[in-house]
């Protein structure tokens, strides 16, 4: 069984690339990059970037809006098993 790693990112692209490198060994990686992110996220070629980006405030409802976008993405046409 492959694992779907769901990541909400907003800065520190170098750290994200290292984290993704570890995650890719065991499954697919799906990333939501905050709409407010000013950093350039490169080196994520083998990942699935969620196109419907939202501006996230880490203590409010927008965070709850981004999570379903991540949770729905891996399922259609994927062999990845989703466990929440």
What do you see in this structure?
The protein is α/β, with parallel strands linked by helices and 84 residues long. It has one domain (3-72). The chain is 27% helix and 19% strand. The protein is built from 2 helices and 3 strands. The protein has helices spanning 13-23, 61-72, and strands spanning 3-9, 27-33, 48-49. The chain has a 3-stranded parallel β-sheet, with helices on both faces. α1 (13-23) links the parallel β1 (3-9) and β2.
Key attributes of the depicted protein:
single chain, 84 residues, alpha/beta, three-stranded parallel β-sheet
β-strand amount: 15-25%
- The number of domains is 1
Largest sheet: 3 strands, parallel
Quaternary organisation of the protein chains: single chain
Instruction: List SSEs in N-to-C order.
Output: EHEEH
Number of helices: 2
Whole-number radius of gyration? 12 Å
């Amino acid at each position: 069984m492959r694992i779907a790693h769901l990541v909400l990112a907003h800065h520190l692209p170098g750290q994200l690339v290292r984290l993704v490198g570890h995650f890719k060994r065991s499954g697919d990686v799906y990333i939501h990059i905050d709409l407010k992110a000013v950093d350039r996220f490169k080196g994520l070629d083998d990942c699935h970037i969620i196109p419907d980006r939202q501006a996230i405030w880490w203590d409010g409802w927008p965070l709850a809006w981004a999570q379903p976008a991540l949770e729905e993405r891996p399922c259609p046409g994927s062999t990845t098993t989703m466990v929440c």
